[in-house]
Request: fold
Amino acid sequence: MILTRRMALLGAGAMLTGCDRLASHDSVREALFSAENFHRWAQRSLMARDALAQEFRPDQISPIFRANGTANPNTPAYKALWRNGFADWRLAVTGLVERPLSLSLAQLRTLPHREQITRHDCVEGWSAIGKWRGVPLRTIVEGARLRDSARYLVFRCADDMGGGRPYYESIDLIDAFHPQTILAFALNDAPLTVANGAPVRLRVERQLGYKQAKYLMGIEAVATLDGIGKGKGGFWEDVAGYDWYAGI
Amino acid sequence: MDSPTPTDGITVKRHRLSTRLWHWLNAALLYVLFTSGLGIFNAHPRLYWGQYGANFDHAWLELERFPGWITLPGLYNLAMSRHWHLTAAPIFAFALLFYMLWSLANRHVTRDLAFRRYDLRPRHIWQDIKDHARLRFPTGQAALRYNVLQKASYVGVIFILLPLVILTGLTMAPGMNAAWPWLVDLFGGRQSARSLHFIAAFALAAFFIVHILMVILAGPINEVRSMITGRYRVPE
Reply:
């Protein structure tokens, strides 16, 4: 990103096209960024609240499920967790909840599971189909009992992205309570590998890949996304300007 | 070849306001959509058939990244390419929908675009192909009607290519897959839809090039004026 920004500065003037110059105006930028709101409204108007993402047959699973983004958080804290098989890992459920939780991997595995063969769509354009097993997020959230003021769930990750600004993501309650939204601990019948987000990653099946936060450490219920990171609701949303609603 | 720019022909009203507005809106939107689309494609310049496709899977097409002079923005920025693309796309889609309905209502489709029986006679089609190949453009009354190749390309673009590019674009949206799962089935998978979207975009680019070439050969000033003011001087 730093490289891109530096190149953008160097290239400014000579290389900017008319459209690029247009996009440097705040009002144009704002209009371009607000298309997301139209798409969220349009998609959610067209689909039932619990409309399911497509599920596939076992023979349609990708031979190799491409792992993307961070391949290993490699922080001392994460390495310590990994070394003893995540026995000391705890998922903290905090924020606007009546009953904060701290769940171990063993506890998560005793809860009712959901299994789904779904397609992972990267914002870059590729897709991979995999079979996920995990606990419906709804089960966790209902266990923690959301307060009425909660509007979003923020997912905190062990991955510090090398810059001390850890990966995080957020979804609203429509997706939080969706039947296919799960905290996945297995991919293709094997425990999650480090590259795919061990020990637990989020699956929000109606959105793009960058919403599927890996290396989950905590879930925080909040009333607003302001004040978290840069306030855009996620690492890539803050850093690169990706849409918060990634249904398109 | 006869002089393509008539000097003293009569001037007639050629293009409706709806056609002119839609034409220029489309020109701007297609430019934004094509260039930002190439910017998005550059994030993963490989194409696949079927439901899935990533680096380990077989790609039927693998390209280098498109150069900055033809992408929007000029410097690789996937987020900005997507913002441009997803802002222009719904305007483009609804404009097409309204234009289709409007052109059915004002009988533009049935009067000007629908094939007549004589259009479809093999000898007539062959004659039209020969005329085009020799760059022999119609004059007088014949210049006021679309010939069969023109009709075929306009009908093909409006009723096949543009709906195809819009629907395959929608198919790539994971949210739309939940809303309208039939879209994925229609195109045989998300990666097939992505490939068809790419092919349709380049078919539109090919149409654009031939279209510009024909305008230049048929008399650019008269043709462009007719698409701005609606007035067209009949070639003699």
